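From the methods appendix. Each design record in this collection lists the tokenized structure first, followed by the designed amino acid sequence. Records were kept in a plain field format so they could be parsed without special tools. The example shown here is representative of the layout used throughout.

RECORD:
FOLD TOKENS (347 positions):
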């Protein structure tokens, strides 16, 4: 299909709007919507109620209204956009393939139900443990709490190939859970935590990213305002280890090295028999790239806390924020940190 210059420009405008602005708003809207409606979802019944479809249609309408408002603001119609979007999407290696997949997945019924059920389980777990629900994410550079935006909370972005365990590490630290069933992250996910580190309070926004190439377009808007980047590789995958320099280059694109704390993490050390990247190799690369280095496993939480508290220590000199009543305070482990204890078997 022939695509006109005007059609390419229209799709490019929507792509920039969605990846640089709307993705953040969509995440906030999705979390707020899930918090308000997830209680009606009952996955244990194994059936889909008409109420689920009604709520899904309401959620889709929220996004479609925002898209239509943007199109109207630039003098375009929904019909013109979808025609151009369909044409460009059929091109081999189409530039909007990743964007199309994210938009489709976010609005897909099955994915919507999955998110609602996960949020319900998360809220039930939080109520059972006395942990307050995580507030919606802030735009880069700010933090959303019960009292509104709180500027200056460090934004920490997790990078690395698909399947290295980025999501598992975050979930293990935040919720003390591990899911054996692997599900690839779509676009971006987030969680917020407040740490208490040697008398200092530090808020962290932990952003989990998709490792697939098609989602790279989402990352620049988050990376440019990040305070730290954690690059994760799988110690049983040489390919994931070899990709680290590329992820570091992406993190530093348009940034000064002094503005960004870089952390390298070798995950899955419980799979010692399958290890193909030795700890010494990780340490050498981290030294070369001027990164903090940790090894851990999300499966049983071995050395997971050391990653996040080590990261916090690297940020505390610039981030001294008071505690908020609506967030959990984590007490740091004893001063003798596991990662520095060379006598402790960790691999």
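DESIGN:
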């Amino acid at each position: 299909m022939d695509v006109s210059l005007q059609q390419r420009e229209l799709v490019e405008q929507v792509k920039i709007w969605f990846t640089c602005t709307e993705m953040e708003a969509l995440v906030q809207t999705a979390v707020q919507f899930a918090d308000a409606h997830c209680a009606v979802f009952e996955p244990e019944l194994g059936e889909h109620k008409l109420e689920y479809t009604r709520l899904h249609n309401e959620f889709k309408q929220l996004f479609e209204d925002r898209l239509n408002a943007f199109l109207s603001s630039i003098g375009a119609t929904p019909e013109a956009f979808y025609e151009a979007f369909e044409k460009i999407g059929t091109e081999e290696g189409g530039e909007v393939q990743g964007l199309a997949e994210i938009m489709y997945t976010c609005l897909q019924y099955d994915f919507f139900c999955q998110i609602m059920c996960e949020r319900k389980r998360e809220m039930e777990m939080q109520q059972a443990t006395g942990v307050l629900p995580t507030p919606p994410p802030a735009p880069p550079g700010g933090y959303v709490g019960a009292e509104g935006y709180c500027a200056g909370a460090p934004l920490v972005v997790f990078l690395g190939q698909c399947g290295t365990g980025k999501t598992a590490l975050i979930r293990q630290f935040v919720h003390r859970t591990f899911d054996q069933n692997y599900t690839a992250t779509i676009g971006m996910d987030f969680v917020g935590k407040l740490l208490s580190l040697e008398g200092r309070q530090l808020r962290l926004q932990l952003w989990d990213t998709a490792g697939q190439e098609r989602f790279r377009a989402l990352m620049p808007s988050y990376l440019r305002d990040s305070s730290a980047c954690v690059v994760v590789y799988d110690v049983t995958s040489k390919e994931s280890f070899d990709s680290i320099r590329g992820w570091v280059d992406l993190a530093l694109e348009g940034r000064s090295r002094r503005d960004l704390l870089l952390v390298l993490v070798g995950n899955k050390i419980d799979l010692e028999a399958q290890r193909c990247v030795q700890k010494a190799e990780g340490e050498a690369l981290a030294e070369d790239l001027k990164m903090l280095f940790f090894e851990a496993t999300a499966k049983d939480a071995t050395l997971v806390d050391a990653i996040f508290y080590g990261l916090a220590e690297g940020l505390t000199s610039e981030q001294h924020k008071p505690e908020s009543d609506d967030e959990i305070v984590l007490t740091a482990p004893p001063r003798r940190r596991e990662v520095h204890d060379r006598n402790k078997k960790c691999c």
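APPENDIX NOTE: Strands lie at 144-145, 148-149, 155-159, 188-197, 200-209, 228-234, 261-267, 292-295, 329-331.
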